[in-house]
Write a structure and sequence with these properties.
The complex is a heterodimer of chains A (303) and B (313).
Chain A lengths: L20 H5 L5 H29 L3 H4 L14 H7 L2 H34 L5 H11 L4 H14 L6 H26 L2 H9 L4 H30 L2 H6 L8 H12 L4 H35 L2
Helix pairs in contact in A: 2-13, 4-13, 5-8, 5-10, 6-8, 8-10, 8-13, 9-10, 10-13, 12-13
Chain B lengths: L4 H5 L3 H4 L3 H33 L2 E2 L2 H4 L5 E2 L3 H7 L2 H34 L2 H16 L2 H11 L6 H8 L15 H29 L3 H9 L4 H29 L3 H8 L4 H4 L2 H7 L4 H28 L4
Antiparallel strand pairs in B: 1-2
Helix pairs in contact in B: 3-16, 6-10, 6-12, 7-10, 8-13, 10-12, 11-12, 12-16, 15-16
The chains are: A mainly alpha (303), B mainly alpha (313).
């Protein structure tokens, strides 16, 4: 537990270091062997990405190209009609509004609260610190399905069922543990000596924190934000329980509705709906992922 | 850092740590918002669920009838039902198989990433990221379409590329074993990227100097991998495996959505979906959720203790 004194982890700089040849040299790994591994990696990459490719491919295909004995592998005669049907659907936009509302509330609340808590556990030693960290870990084991009923009843008692506020409340509580876990790794990664030096130079503790440490935490906050965004945007089960009114559906519930009304009739529209929901997330995710993993690893190995 | 050392030496406690006492209380102030929120939306339902599990609490009680204390009746009802045991067994097997498969493939991917050229590494990383970033429900719909019995591309490939004629029109989710196979494929596909990236980030932390020193001392590549790399990434491996076991044991969405796609519910239930199916009998749901939490702790408790002992928390 060397929380406060841990030096800056190299994980704050997640740019992949090139694996050195020298570390490889002892292995009888010829240039050819390396190339074979490279080819293997590309084949695996193709396998892993195929479902996503298939989603986009099918989204562009008209019904008569989807329901053929032989699959159509390239959307050469593609059409935008599936996407148009999704985007012309008012229930899609209603669900979009609900989802955006929930995401915004959850992000603001979770980031702020998690940040404060992460600060406490990684910058201070106090009675109950280890207990708090342990609780955060154990909370993630609670089978969410077991809580649904009492969460539903609680929200019902406060008239928060089918409300953005109600869903946001349970979402925020659900993502807080992991967000605190992640942020604490980042906070621990900024050496306290930097702040102390600022204080020696005459800054107050608060000023030292906001002028010195806070800017260094920006990547961590972005990463935690993305995590929260993904969770709130993608979550299905709690939404299923809390948002029972079809008019209050979030995007995943809307998508499941679309699947169930189109199954075996029109996969093209379903794929277009999936793609429309997935693409913004994927793009967002590609930008910030390495900060996320490094934050997690920092959280795992640093106090 | 070196530049700051002189400044630190004239460190006067009064200057460096003013208002020590007030800060002590302030620490708890920082924890309060998060603690209250988790207490209200997680802690309270958890306690309530626990209390209900000792009561008779069904639909009638929801409409105002007072709940009656029944002691351990809900637990004995559940634990004397062989079906519940079947589901518990299934869930444990499903969890272990999925966590093991995810870890093996994920670690293999991470090691692969550290041994290949830049171009192929980025190709693999981008493709894993795409799988990771896709919303669960979107992934679920795509996989249902891939495994579709009539027009699904998987059946087509099996029938026409691998010559398995009888796979044409095969329905994957009717049969429990193949239902779990499909679920495993989906869960592993979604979870591998997280493991691969975390472990890869861990592999990058292994200092080159250590590796070079070991190499000079004559350690073979295999020895270096098992005696230096593996112990150094072990903290990452532990935490990732722990999370994987927790997540795979309480898997719900994937199973639920596949069931909705037309699989027989009773034959394919895991603990998550079984609890959900008790939505009219809250006390049973509460008791089963408590049992599930106990099993999770049993599966992971040893591990957590180990981590606590080694101060990895």
């Amino acid at each position: 537990m060397s929380a406060v004194t841990t030096p800056a982890p190299t994980t704050l700089d997640p740019a992949p270091r090139k694996p050195t040849r020298s570390s490889e040299a002892g292995r009888a790994q010829s240039r050819g062997g390396r190339r074979a591994l490279g080819i293997l990696a590309v084949v695996l990459a193709a396998m892993w990405v195929f479902p996503i490719y298939w989603m986009i491919n099918s989204a562009f295909l008209p019904l008569n190209k989807l329901q053929t004995p032989e699959p159509t592998f390239f959307p050469t005669e593609g059409t935008f009609s599936n996407f148009r049907r999704v985007l012309d659907d008012p229930t899609f936009w209603a669900a979009m509004r609900i989802s955006l509302g929930v995401v915004i509330v959850v992000l603001v609340a979770a980031l702020l609260f998690a940040f404060l808590a992460a600060l406490a556990v990684s910058r201070f030693r106090f009675r109950g610190r280890k207990g708090f960290i342990l609780t955060i870990l154990v909370v993630q084991m609670i089978p969410a399905e077991g809580l649904f009923i009492s969460q539903y009843q609680m929200l019902d008692g406060w008239n928060l069922v089918n409300k953005v506020a109600g869903l946001s409340l349970v979402y925020t509580a659900a993502i807080l543990p992991f967000t605190i876990w992640m942020l604490r790794g980042f906070v621990a990664g900024v050496p306290i000596e930097l702040e102390e030096a600022g204080m020696v130079d005459g800054l107050s503790r608060t000023a030292a924190f906001f002028r010195i440490t806070f800017p260094l935490l920006a990547p961590g906050l972005v990463a935690a934000g993305v995590y929260g965004f993904l969770q709130a945007w993608n979550e299905y089960t709690l939404a299923l329980v809390v948002m029972t009114d079809p008019a209050q559906r979030t995007l995943p519930l809307w998508l499941q509705g679309l699947v169930e009304s189109n199954r075996a009739t029109d996969w093209g529209v379903v794929m277009a709906g999936s793609a429309v929901i997935a693409i913004p997330v994927i793009v967002f995710f590609l930008f910030v992922q390495n900060k996320m993993t490094s934050g997690l690893v920092a959280g795992a190995v640093k106090g | 850092m070196a530049a700051m050392a002189p400044a630190l030496q004239q460190d006067d406690p009064e200057v460096a740590f003013p208002r020590r006492r007030r800060r002590k209380l302030g620490v708890y102030g920082l924890l309060v918002p998060a603690a209250i929120l988790m207490g209200v939306a997680l802690g309270y339902p958890l306690v309530r669920q626990f209390v209900i599990s000792f009561q008779e609490y069904g639909l009638r009680q929801q409409f105002g009838q007072p709940a009656e204390w029944v002691g351990l009746k809900n637990y004995t009802d559940l634990l004397t039902d062989p079906y519940v045991w079947t589901v518990i067994g299934r869930s444990i097997v499903f969890c272990l198989v999925n966590a093991a498969a995810t870890m093996l493939i994920g670690v293999a991917f991470a090691v692969l990433m550290s041994r290949i050229g830049r171009a192929s590494r980025i190709t693999l990383q981008v493709s894993l990221l795409l799988a990771w970033g896709t919303p669960v429900l979107a992934s679920m719909t795509v996989w249902q379409w891939l495994f579709d019995s009539q027009y699904g591309v998987i059946n087509w490939v099996l029938a026409n590329v691998f010559g398995l004629e009888d796979m044409a029109g095969h329905s994957w989710i009717i049969e429990p074993l193949s239902f779990y196979f499909v679920a495993t494929v989906i869960v592993v596909w979604m979870s591998v990227p997280f493991v691969a990236f975390s472990v890869y980030a861990g592999l990058l932390q292994v200092p080159e100097e250590t590796m070079e020193a070991a190499q000079l001392d004559g350690a073979s590549a295999r020895q270096r991998f098992w005696n230096i790399t593996m112990p150094m990434v072990r903290p990452v491996l532990s935490i990732v495996l722990l999370l994987q076991v927790i997540w795979d044991f309480k898997v719900f969405t994937q199973i639920y959505v596949l069931q909705r796609a037309g699989a027989p519910t009773r034959e394919t239930n895991l603990l998550g979906t079984l609890i959900y199916s008790y939505s009219d009998e809250f006390s049973l749901a509460g008791a089963l959720a408590t049992i599930m939490l106990v099993i999770t702790l049993a599966l992971t408790g040893f591990y957590i203790r180990q981590m606590l002992k080694e101060d990895e928390l």
